[in-house]
Structure formats: C-alpha cells, structure tokens
Design a protein that fits this description.
The chain is mainly β and 116 residues long. The protein has a single domain, classed as Barwin-like endoglucanases (Beta Barrel). Helix content is 9%, strand content 47%. It contains 2 helices and 8 strands, in the order βββαββββαβ. An 8-stranded mixed β-sheet has the order 2-6-3-5-4-7-1-8. The protein is globular, with a radius of gyration of 14 Å.
C-alpha cells in the first residue's frame, strides 16, 4: 500500500508578485527549490496564510538568491503582493518507507525570502 506524505515545505514566505498574464505556475527562488528538494515542474500546493486560500500549481525556478515568490496565471487572483504563503509538495511511498522518511523543511527569512 502506498500513502501520500509530506515531501517538502517552504514555510512562510512573502509573495513578491502576482502576474495574471502568464500561462500558470509559481516562480520560486532557485535556492529555495534546491533547499526544499522541489524540482522545476513539480506539483505544489500553495496555502495563503492571509486569506486561507489553497491551490495547486507547478513550480518554476526564479533567479537564485532573488527571494522571488510570484504566483502566475489564474493563481495570481488568489494572492496579493506581501501575502505570506506556505509551499508544500507531497510524495507517494510505501507505508514502511513513509514511517522512516524525513521531509525537507525550509524556514527562510519571511521578510527577504532568503535562507539565513
């Protein structure tokens, strides 16, 4: 039996932009993607702490060390610049493996979105 478990989390980052005229996704500073073990194109869940919105999209890499967190396309309607979000990815794995699995948890500076 496989279960879906937390794979990665980027905890409490500030939205730096919302670009409605884009095909979709969330742009995330490449350093944060690497630290959280999230790859470009991977499905992620976005939880908006400010308004309770939850949505799913896919990750694309933004410039490294830029602190960029931009919601693109329709997702841009669910956030405002300055909102605090949590970015989560999940993985399917066997129950016995899930019991031992350690997710990648990243806690960047909320004001700069950079790792300290």
């Amino acid at each position: 039996m496989q279960i879906e478990v937390l794979k990665s989390k980027i905890h409490r980052v500030s939205v730096t932009g919302a670009e409605l005229d884009y095909i979709g996704s969330i742009t995330i500073d490449e350093e944060l993607l690497d630290a959280a073990n999230i790859i470009e194109g991977e499905k992620v869940q976005i939880v908006n702490v400010n308004n309770g919105e939850r949505l799913e999209t896919y990750a694309i890499a933004g410039p490294r060390h830029s602190g960029v967190i931009t919601l693109n396309g329709p997702a841009a309607r669910k956030v405002q610049k300055g909102d605090i979000v949590i970015i989560i990815s999940y993985a399917l794995m066997e129950l016995k493996d899930a019991k031992k699995y350690q997710p990648s948890l990243v806690f960047p500076n909320t004001e700069t979105n950079l790792l300290t």
